[in-house]
Design brief:
Blueprint lengths: L4 E7 L3 H17 L3 E7 L5 H14 L10 E9 L5 H18 L3 E8 L5 H7 L1 H22 L8
Parallel strand pairs: 1-2, 1-3, 3-4
Length: 156
């Protein structure tokens, strides 16, 4: 069996914070023996577009050099001064709909901070949520693997 691979898709609007989040995610994935690649976008509003492009590329790729990931980990931080709260929830909902429709395991930490002071603590406050998101993603990937392979899958 090959080593599982995950794409970490992240918004870089607050690079110092998301870099710390990325490092936490990489540590948790590495502990599980999962390889990863990183795709970044400038803002959280770009996450659904990038995810759609990644899903389409994985689904339609005839290039043997492109490895289809077993899952996606999505990281993003929104701030009230940058985006309306309802737009944040629209982004989150769109991400969930894309991965659910594609049937691809995913997990995310896409959060909305209402106060500017909260941004100073966002890097550390969500560490446990990122670790839980990775564990949730691993569990979904294992479930998918079990269901697509014998004895659950129909013998060819």
């Amino acid at each position: 069996m090959h080593q599982p691979h995950v794409v970490i898709l992240e918004s870089r609007r607050f690079p110092d914070i998301t870099e710390q989040w990325y490092n936490v995610a990489v540590g948790a994935l590495t502990q599980q023996g999962i390889t990863y690649s990183r795709v970044t976008v400038p803002n959280s509003v770009d996450l659904p577009i990038a995810l759609r492009i990644l899903l389409d590329a994985a689904h339609h790729s005839e290039n043997a050099n492109i490895r289809t990931p077993e899952g996606y980990l999505i990281l993003g931080l929104n701030y009230k001064g940058d985006i309306a709260e309802e737009n944040h929830y629209c982004i989150w909902d769109t991400l969930l709909n894309l991965t659910t429709h594609a049937g691809v395991p995913s997990s995310s930490v896409v959060v909305f901070e209402k106060e500017g002071g909260d941004l100073n603590h966002a890097a550390t406050r969500y560490v446990s949520k990122i670790q839980l998101a990775v564990q949730s993603l691993v569990n979904l990937m294992m479930l998918r693997h079990q269901l697509l392979n014998p004895p659950f899958a129909a013998a060819a």
